[in-house]
Amino acid sequence: MSNETHFGFREVDPAEKQGLVNEVFSSVASRYDLMNDLMSAGLHRPWKEAMVTTVNPPRGPQPFALLDVAGGTGDIAFRVIEAGGSGTQATVCDINAEMLAVGRERAEKLGHNVEFIEGNAEKLPFPDKSFDAYTIAFGIRNVPRIPDALKEAHRVLKPGGRFVCLEFSTVDVPGLDRIYDLYSFNLIPAMGRAVTGDAESYKYLVESIRKFPRPQVFADMMTAAGLRRASFRPLTGGIVALHSGWRL
Ligand SMILES: C[S@@+](CC[C@H](N)C(=O)[O-])C[C@H]1O[C@@H](n2cnc3c(N)ncnc32)[C@H](O)[C@@H]1O
Question: For labeling, which of 7, 46, 133, 207 is most exposed (least CB within 10 Å)?
């Protein structure tokens, strides 16, 4: 069986994919947050809020440890800290130093005490059973070996801990699928060129969305990694889906 994975629509070796993905995020890091707002017309905000509602950190002083993997510039970690009580702590882990540097700067400005750690989702630098929740937003489709990342999520979660993943999904609403294709294959790379000077990175982002498994296939991958009660909820006509599972 071939070990090939995809970098956008291209078949590549997993080791090569990670290098190419890292180039994408190093190239866009300084404009990443602005581009998120532009590309999604602000929709990434309510999607992320829906994710935080699912994570549901306690409002009181009880300890709650969140690990946000592929956490980039810190959006999910900041939102969970803001929603949670005084016992809520967040750690962001990302493979890209440039994205983490933007995140650290934002945390300082917002006055949030978040730990930023460089690491690979496929081999997390944390002990077993350390976190109450594991989140990954728009991150898992960039990881070359998704089954390894899911096993690591299961390993670092405490029993009773929750896995929550927000990812682009499959638009199944007739009509919306055509508009979405036109928008993403034409306008997004053009916006990327205008704002970051880099259309290729945004072409990769759009292609990688199309290559990500359908939500039920991803739910089955979660189950295969040991996560239980795997479920998903499409948002905005399936443009994204919120996946949930538990370590029991
Ligand atoms: C689209 S960004 C998402 C950032 C953030 N979660 C958000 O929602 O705004 C994808 C992130 O995945 C990170 N990433 C890619 N491969 C990774 C890996 N193997 N392990 C950890 N992070 C990875 C990238 O560096 C990038 O910061």
Answer: 46
Among 85-99, 194-208, 232-246, the range scoring the smallest mean pLDDT is 194-208
Q: Give distance in angstroms: CA of 68 to centre of ligand 1.
A: 10
Going from the Cα of 18 to the center of ligand 1, the distance in angstroms, rounded, reads: 11
Q: Name 45's Cβ contacts closer than 8 Å, sequence gap at least 6.
A: 37
How many other C-beta atoms are found inside a 10 Å radius of the C-beta of residue 193?
A: 15
Binding site membership of 120 for ligand 1 (Cβ less than 6 Å): yes
pLDDT in tens, 44-98: 999 999 999 999 999 999 999 999 999 999 999 999 999 999 999 999 999 999 9
Q: Is 222 in the pocket of ligand 1 (CB under 6 A)?
A: no
Ligand 1: which residue has its CA nearest to atom 1?
138
The mean pLDDT of 204-212, rounded to a whole number, is 88
Nearest atom in ligand 1 to 121's CA: 20
DSSP 185: I
Residue 137 Cβ contacting ligand 1 at under 6 Å = yes
Residue for token pair 């995809």: 6
CA-closest residue to ligand 1 atom 27: 72
Q: Is 74 in the pocket of ligand 1 (CB under 6 A)?
A: no
Please state the pTM of the whole predicted model.
Answer: 0.95
Neighbour tally for 111: CB within 10 Å: 6
Residue with tokens 């962001």: 92
Angle between helices 97-110 and 32-40 (to 10 degrees): 90
